[in-house]
Specification:
Elements lengths: L14 H24 L6 H14 L1 H18 L12 H72 L3 E7 L5 H6 L5 E4 L8 H9 L4 E9 L2 E14 L2 E8 L4
Antiparallel strand pairs: 1-2, 1-5, 3-4, 4-5
């Protein structure tokens, strides 16, 4: 995976530059304290270590700045003749070649490692975010399926315990009226206890309805039919829309 922001791992602002100046000052102080013991030996080692630490914590720009300032301080204070800039000899040339070369190699390696680390952290955060999104969607799907199952179980349960229900049908709230009317035969999900008592033609008319309202239907009364009112009520749930048709009076 290509991460464009992998090179932007270093902190921004004025504080990193303050820490850079503090690190240069510490390196200079340590080298001054060791100068009576070391003399002209390894004049840039303390500054190399400071530049490496600055690279690890604050990035390449501050590390290169620390390297350049360290080179000037080391050449001026710790390369003989001391505290003279007019004389350029073999010691100055050795410091000018060896110190920047080694320091640049070290800070480039650290920069590469820090970018790889930051890239891995970004990829890990993206993967964690996607994993959480997948978990959330999976949980929502499971809850929706469970709610739909419970709703349909309730719709199947109601007709058995309410003797005035004729028919319960469901339809897709997102579908148009023509689409609902075209598949009305498939929308009836439950037959009530009064379903068999209603005239077949009236059952077809109820099954084709897509809006709530009152209808006059014929229902068996002995060996004949009598006309009564059938009320259609719409119920909207998270599992879908339902029309419940029930007679307003029991036989």
């Amino acid at each position: 995976m290509k991460v464009k922001n992998a090179g932007r791992w270093a902190p921004r602002g004025a504080r990193p530059w303050l820490y850079t100046g503090f690190a240069i000052a510490i390196a200079s102080g340590i080298r001054i304290l060791l100068h009576p013991l070391l003399g002209p030996i390894m004049p840039g080692t303390a500054f190399l270590i400071a530049a490496a630490l600055i690279e690890y914590f604050f990035g390449m720009t501050r590390a290169i700045f620390a390297m350049v300032i360290g080179l000037l301080i080391a050449d001026y204070l710790f390369v003989p003749p001391y505290q003279q800039i007019a004389v350029f000899d073999q010691s100055d040339l050795a410091l000018l070649i060896s110190y920047p070369l080694i320091t640049i190699v070290v800070i480039c390696l650290i920069e590469r490692l820090r970018r790889a680390q930051f890239r891995a952290e970004l990829i890990g955060q993206v993967a964690q975010s996607r994993y959480e999104m997948l978990l959330r969607r999976d949980n929502e799907r499971v809850l929706a399926d469970r709610a739909a199952d419970e709703t349909h179980r309730l719709m199947r349960h109601l007709p058995h315990y309410h003797d005035d229900i004729v028919l319960i049908k469901a339809f897709d709230r997102k579908a148009g009226a023509e689409a609902r009317r075209a598949r009305h035969d498939a929308t009836a999900i439950a037959q009530g206890t009064r379903f068999d008592n209603v005239h077949p033609d009236d059952v077809k008319r109820l099954a084709s309805m897509i809006h709530p309202g009152s209808q006059r239907v014929r229902i068996t009364h002995g060996s004949a039919f009598r006309t009564i009112t059938c009320l259609g009520e719409q119920f909207t749930t998270h599992a879908g829309d339902f029309l419940v048709f029930r007679v307003e009076e029991a036989s």
